[in-house]
Amino acid sequence: MLEAYLFVDPLCKQCIKSEKIIKRLAKNLNTHFLYQFIPMLNIKILNNTRVPKMARIHQQLYYQIVMDYKAALFHGKKRGQNFFITLQEELLNDKDRYNNRLVLATAENSKLDLDMFKEDRRSQLAKKSFEADQQLVHEMKITKPSSAVIFNWAMFNYGILFNNVNYDDLYRVCHSQPERINRKSIRDNHGIPVPHVSIN
Hints:
5 strands; 9 helices; DsbA family protein; single chain; alpha+beta
């Protein structure tokens, strides 16, 4: 079984493309393939990818979007991820600004239980899940959004870190010889060794 962790900036168009690549990969692979989108809210990383003074302005907005996403995941991974991508597209395509009306409309369209979602989006459980994500970013030494780490659970001491998500590269590694996601495949595919970290 393969598992991918895609680390994303909630307000990054390239990250939406990467999310869709991972979903397409999961659909087309013959092997069992799990994936998670891990939102990043690390001010140092934001400073490296955006105008520094804008990073501070966006930090609270990022936190609100991420908390909404974590709450949506409590309704199931598929619905939660669909909610996240839809909200990203609404915000990044300038269709709307972030506000409560937009979030609740997106939640309803994603078939979330609105009463439960309203409670969960500011819950301690969502906050702990967010904190676990940021710890994972630190432990895997992720330095840029739209990075993906692929693990093979049969040999999970190491994973391959892709700093640039490309469907053809990911498919080749995962489809041709998934059992060889190890030290050799890391070297052959110009990957970076990443220690496996459990997510509760």
